[in-house]
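Entry 14: structure prediction run for Mannose-binding protein C. Input pasted below.
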Amino acid sequence: MFTDGSSLLVIGSAIYQIPEWAEEEQVPGSTAVRFFGTWGHVYREEVTNITVVTKDGTFLMATVIVMCRHSLVGMRQRTDADTCVSNGDLCCNLWVGASDQDREGMFQWVNNNSLTFTHWFPGEPNGGRNEDCVQLCNNGQWNDESCSNNENALCEKEL
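Run finished. Output tokens:
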């Protein structure tokens, strides 16, 4: 931990500075979380234990950001997706915690657990253009997308 409260995370040969999360701020209708560091401010909207981090970033960046306090969501059942989708515009093209980066066509959660539930959009996953990471579309269905795209992230926390 550094004097500014941040710490380092090493993933492979890459080193990322993880910013320290400050206190949560009450905002009417939501809880905002602010951290200071290379990515500016992150705000989240509470949806039960599911959180939308409204800061665009790549899949890896989203994984790094939410490691501060959350994990990318690993949907275990259809109601997890439905809960998010029922909250409208918050859930539009969000990273969820699944990819097939380790083995093409074998999607798993970032914690290495197998998928026990899927809800792919028709024709997906198609693996086009190095599409290895899973995003939740605003209709609740999944799409495989390039991990280098900038998207918001769907995260979860233990209650």
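Notes: The mean pLDDT is 61. Will compare against the previous run tomorrow.
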